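Students often ask what a holo structure prediction actually looks like on paper. The answer is less mysterious than it sounds. You provide the chain, you provide the ligand, and the output is a string of discrete structure tokens encoding the 3D arrangement of the protein together with zinc ion.
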Amino acid sequence: MKSRQPVAITTLARYDLQRPDCERAMGSLWEYLDKELTPTMWRTNGAHITACERCHPRMSFDRALLRAVRASDQSTRAPARLRAFLETKREGRA
Ligand SMILES: [Zn+2]
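The corresponding structure tokens follow.
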């Protein structure tokens, strides 16, 4: 009888991003959402994100988050921890 090794969640997450197209698309997701990519990169990443079952949900979540932040009262600054978290995500370090 074989023993089964548990697979760490972090291992699965790393595996997901080992696909070159996913890595590229998710590595510049916030630039994509902010339309800060070149037109060619924006189209290439957009085509991937629209079709990819891994990247599309993440893009939808981050887009909703971005819209919520932008729609919030601009005169109220986000707490320092939230701003730091968003900055980390924006730089692709999360
Ligand atoms: Zn993908």
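Residues 21-22, 25, 48, 52, 54-55 surround zinc ion (CB under 6 Å).
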